[in-house]
Specification:
With 126 residues, this protein is mainly α. It contains five helices and no strands. The protein has one domain. Helix 1 runs antiparallel to helix 3, helix 1 packs across helix 4 and helix 3 packs antiparallel against helix 4. The longest helix has 29 residues.
Length: 126
Amino acid sequence: MNYASILILLFLAVTFIQSGYDKVSDWKGNVGWLKEHFAQTLLRNSVPLALFIILALELVAGIFCVVGSIQLLTNGERNYGFYGAVFACITLIFLLFGQRIAKDYDGARTIAIYFIPAVMAVYWLG
């Protein structure tokens, strides 16, 4: 049993499902803050669409990570966990792109910290 992979998948699941929940529960507040955050960038007119894309990616990643954890625990299969880790990496790359465009280097650094375990999961489960 690959306990490290299960723990990373659970970490990613909590991260992305909670983040998705936050976006849904305070959509208006998130859009307002992000419009300000991206006011001086090429993303300024695309904030609601970009936020929706990120929300969808986060939920897909989170759900795949939950299902992948269960799959690893029950039958040792890795495909859903792998997909969850890949979607997590894609989501984090999108988020990193946004932070770099906004010149929020501290935010970009934080995303890089999340990227490390996500890539480890892709490697271990691939």
